[in-house]
């Protein structure tokens, strides 16, 4: 991509970008993938998203539909090309549509992230609780381990009730065809665990041991017509109860031979939890130090910056709530309604912005510099499981400036904590 820049009034920069034909084609292809994911399109093996869109949605020109997404994909590359970190995402201006086989020109007016100063760069002082691992956490882990290895044994016969555990024989069919994965000669079933639809479980209530019953229920996700129902012949073979093993030396030798004995297992769990809690504790101290440094911030933050941060926070929140199955409107009401929620969001946006700008100022003041290790550390903080993929993805998608910003702030935050006066509170006596 060819990018030229021109300085404007107020510190703004106008970028004129020309994407190559290969970049245009790639941007449209990426936009196609995003469209397919959003619309849950089923792409046939060897087929394309465009073919699936035409077949399932009647869209004959998918390139035209995803124009905006393709342009937005190209924007970060222009910014990163000039090594600029924007204060907020700029809006591209275009004179023509993207077309495969043609170059594409667009312009941006970028407001670079401003440089703020602090009232003082002296070391900060923070007060934190002492680090400790509650032995109850180890007990909980051992209890979970025992639950994972629990046995289900025969219990006294009684009528099936909610919350019961039983051994079921099940013969299931759909449209007259046997369902191999569902049918079984004997499988432990836990009521209320969501293993089968509620309609199925309701018909189990009251059955006796040895009783056989025909049960029909709607297939998950089916519209409700009779052809989409599952027919079962169910037999309650026995009532069962869960028996937890004793995590002793004998059990450890049999099931977890990598540990010498039960005491070694407990120590291993304690070491792992300590490492996890220690990392959380260090993050807590870094956050406390950054929050204290932010008290020294001075300057006015533009309304556009506030709005951009607020939009990002809202987008992340909506995504998190959707994963949890919580309606956004319900969450807003739980926070005191729209007005209260709006105030909380603006306060959170300001705190995040001020902390970031304060760390930027510290990075400049102390003349810190980035290394490859710093960039790797920033990527690791975003995805500890696969930091290389994060870094590669950000750099290949024009988000190098965002990775550098994150790395600079993380390095400044670590420097800040290393030079801080950390007061550890006295442990509370129980």
Could you explain how this protein is built, in words?
The protein has 430 residues and is of the alpha+beta class. The protein folds into 3 domains: 2-110, 2-Layer Sandwich (Alpha-Beta Plaits), CATH 3.30.70.1050; 117-131 and 258-424, Orthogonal Bundle (Trigger factor, domain 2), CATH 1.10.3120; 151-243, Chitinase A, domain 3 (Roll), CATH 3.10.50. The chain is built from 14 helices and 14 strands. The chain has helices at 21-39, 49-57, 62-65, 67-81, 135-148, 198-204, 249-255, 262-294, 303-324, 328-334, 338-365, 372-382, 387-396, 400-418; strands at residues 2-7, 13-19, 93-94, 104-110, 117-118, 125-128, 151-154, 165-174, 177-178, 184-190, 212-218, 229-243, 297-298, 421-424. Strands 7, 8, 9, 10, 11 and 12 form a 6-stranded antiparallel β-sheet that branches. A 4-stranded antiparallel β-sheet has the order 1-2-4-3. It has a two-stranded antiparallel sheet with strand order 5-13. The model has no long low-confidence stretch (mean pLDDT 92).
Keywords:
430 residues, Alpha-Beta Plaits, 6-stranded antiparallel β-sheet, single chain, 14 strands, Chitinase A, domain 3, Trigger factor, domain 2, 14 helices, 3 domains, alpha+beta
